[in-house]
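Subject: Re: docking follow-up (zinc ion)

Dear J.,

Thanks for your patience while I sorted out the input files. As discussed at Tuesday's group meeting, I've set up the holo structure prediction with zinc ion included as the bound ligand rather than trying to dock it afterwards. The sequence and the ligand SMILES I used are pasted below, so you can double-check that they match what you have on your end before we go further.
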Amino acid sequence: MKKILFFILLIFGFLFLISPNVEAKFNNPDSIRVYVEPHPTSFIADEAMSAWTKATAGKIKFKKATKPEDVQIYVRFVKNIGKSTDSNAIGLTHHIYANGHRLELIEISEKAPNGRLFSRDARLRVMIHEFGHALGLEHSTDPKSVMYPTKGTKIIHADDVRTLKYIYGW
Ligand SMILES: [Zn+2]
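The structure tokens for the complex came back this morning:
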């Protein structure tokens, strides 16, 4: 029985290796419609979008919408995400369906589960990371990647851009 289980795991392991779990989320990567909820720190979302546009030399661009209808990414600021999950997450990206179309919902937390406020830098790093998820990137095991899950960097690495290039085919 253990042997069978081992082989099943092995097969799934290989399937995972040969089919990286990445997909293009948008067919208009140079004009992705984004709604950012009004918030005193909403400029962090603007900074994150600029970072992606700069890193991809304009291949990824965002259009800010003044209304949430018909957008492709929705950024929401919440008091505390960590409490609703088992992790100490500062940010989360969900894929949801709204009015029949797919939406990437980014949630950014103001406070850690212990009530501590996150620094501006920490939140920018997380915002860039969450936008990476919204664009279709998965976690990286490389600490130099913005997609490294914990205590990462806010500098978008060439490999992050390379993966996007692969996904969107520019
Ligand atoms: Zn993540």
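A couple of observations from a first look. The first strand starts at residue 32 and ends at 36. The pocket of zinc ion is lined by residues 129, 133, 139, 149 (CB under 6 Å).

Let me know if you'd like me to rerun anything.

Best regards,
T.
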